[in-house]
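User: Please fill in residues for this 90-position structure.
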């Protein structure tokens, strides 16, 4: 079944992108353009992703629960760069 009529993207293609690591509608849009024209498919994409379309990261976060998911996401964030001295900042 088509999810995005504008670009001809199917539910299967959304699932495949999710299995490849696209876990948000924005990441699906980057991978396939789905949701970038009229936007009527974005809620459908969200529903597919919310039902575990195969996103490995989402499955891990769901297993961790709310507190573990927050910790896991924080751990994935890149380290903040060292603070610039006032001379470098100016």
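Assistant: Residues filled in for all 90 positions:
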């Amino acid at each position: 079944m088509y999810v995005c009529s504008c670009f001809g993207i199917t539910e299967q293609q959304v699932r495949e992108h999710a299995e490849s690591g696209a876990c948000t509608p924005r990441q699906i849009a980057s991978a396939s353009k789905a949701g970038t024209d009229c936007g009527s498919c974005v809620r459908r994409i969200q529903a597919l992703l919310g039902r575990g379309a195969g996103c490995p990261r989402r499955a891990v976060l769901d297993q961790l629960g709310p507190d573990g998911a927050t910790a896991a996401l924080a751990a994935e964030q890149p380290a903040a760069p060292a603070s610039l001295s006032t001379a470098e900042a100016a």
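For context: Confidence is low (pLDDT under 50) at residues 68-73.
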